[in-house]
């Protein structure tokens, strides 16, 4: 069998197990050391990397051609759903309150399973944060609580580590703007989706530059790899997570399908990884309910070139995809070195 055919078959087989590895946050389940140097970029950019990149660029082109066609056929898909702002906000507040009640009850975590603390004041902040979302006007109190917890996490674990969790700042912005006049409400969805996309892209890049962390996880769940080489498996998993996060920030007509795909990744991994995974991903599930119900926002509409046709828009988006991947690869390594200098 030709080498390229075997490569394509292996890549297709990996997709059946990707929900587990692509959605599991590695730091929650294995030993890690962010002071270790990242994998050299020259070692990351090997033949397999560029083959997988080519496959995903082609998929992105097809996806955005379909997105553009659907947008042309049903223009309303490119608008935020009228009358669907109140329900997503209530679900976001409910999800945030439930999450912080859980972390308060556990009494060990600052925000996520691996961020530990024994500081008694943290538990009070978590409780007040959970309570504040009960009323719209006090959502700003909850936002302040989340920012305080995030700042404490930065103080204890460092800025580089906490970049995994920028989505908490998105939640804080969304809640704070709920307490402000309606003229600011248009900012809530772009900030929420943008912060989640950043976090997911950041952890996707982590899989490429710190593959040894994911390897620890796969040794404990080796059946998920189905005998596939670890290097290829984690490479495709990283591209799946990166691509879905990229679409969350740039998709329009089919954005809800992208949100469903991410939800499927998170939820399908929960039975395999248990209660820690459920708790850790609970805020992400709450966030994804917003674009699923309300549709696209100013963030997604920004990445379009009205004077271009469908194919040209898709081609420009592919260039943006490659540029984003390049920037984040360089940014991740650069921030890691700065943080340890």
How are the SSEs ordered, and which strands pair?
Layout: H1 3-15, H2 18-23, H3 41-44, H4 47-73, H5 86-106, H6 120-132, H7 139-157, H8 159-162, H9 167-178, H10 188-209, H11 211-220, H12 230-250, H13 255-273, H14 275-294, H15 298-302, H16 310-340
**DSSP strand (E) fraction?**
under 5%
Number of spatially distinct domains: 1
In round numbers, the mean pLDDT is 85
Order of helices and strands: HHHHHHHHHHHHHHHH
Assign an overall shape.
Answer: globular
Number of strands: 0
Radius of gyration (CA) equals 20 Å
Number of helices: 16
Main pleated-sheet profile: none
What is the percent of helical residues? over 70%
Unreliable runs: 7-22
Question: What is the structural class?
Answer: mainly alpha
Termini gap? 49 Å
Characterise the protein shown here.
There is one protein chain. The chain has 16 helices and no strands. Residues 7-22 have low confidence and may be disordered. The protein has one domain (48-340). The chain is an all-alpha fold and 341 residues long. The chain has helices spanning 3-15, 18-23, 41-44, 47-73, 86-106, 120-132, 139-157, 159-162, 167-178, 188-209, 211-220, 230-250, 255-273, 275-294, 298-302, 310-340.
């Amino acid at each position: 069998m030709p080498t390229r055919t075997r490569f394509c078959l292996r890549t297709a087989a990996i997709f059946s197990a990707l929900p587990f590895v692509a959605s599991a946050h590695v730091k929650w389940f294995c030993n890690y050391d962010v002071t270790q140097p990242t994998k050299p970029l020259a070692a990351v950019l090997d033949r397999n990397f560029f083959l997988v990149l080519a496959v995903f660029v082609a998929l992105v082109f097809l996806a955005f051609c379909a997105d553009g066609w659907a947008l042309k056929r049903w223009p309303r898909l490119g608008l935020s759903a009228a009358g669907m702002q109140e329900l997503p906000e209530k679900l976001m507040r409910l999800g945030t309150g439930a999450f912080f009640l859980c972390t308060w009850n556990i009494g060990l975590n600052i925000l996520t399973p691996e961020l530990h603390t024994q500081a008694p004041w943290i538990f009070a902040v978590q409780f007040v944060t959970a309570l504040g979302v009960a009323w719209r006007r006090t959502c700003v109190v909850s936002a302040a609580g989340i920012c305080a917890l995030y700042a404490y996490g930065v103080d204890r674990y460092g800025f580089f580590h906490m970049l995994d969790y920028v989505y908490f700042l998105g939640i804080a912005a969304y809640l704070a703007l709920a307490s402000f006049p309606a003229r600011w409400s248009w900012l809530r969805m772009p900030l929420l989706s943008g912060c989640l996309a950043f976090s997911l892209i950041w952890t996707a890049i982590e899989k490429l530059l710190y593959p040894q962390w994911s390897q620890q996880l796969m040794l404990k769940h080796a059946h998920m790899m189905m005998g596939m080489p670890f290097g290829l498996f984690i490479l495709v998993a990283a591209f799946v997570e990166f691509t879905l996060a990229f679409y969350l920030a740039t998709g329009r007509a089919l954005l809800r399908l992208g949100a469903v795909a991410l939800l499927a990744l998170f939820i399908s991994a929960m039975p395999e990884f248990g209660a820690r995974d459920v708790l850790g991903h609970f805020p992400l599930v709450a966030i994804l309910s917003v674009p699923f119900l309300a549709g696209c926002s100013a963030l997604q509409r920004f990445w379009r070139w009205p004077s271009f046709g469908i194919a040209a828009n898709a081609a420009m988006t592919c260039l943006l995809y490659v540029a984003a991947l390049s920037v984040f690869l360089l940014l991740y390594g650069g921030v890691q070195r700065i943080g340890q200098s």
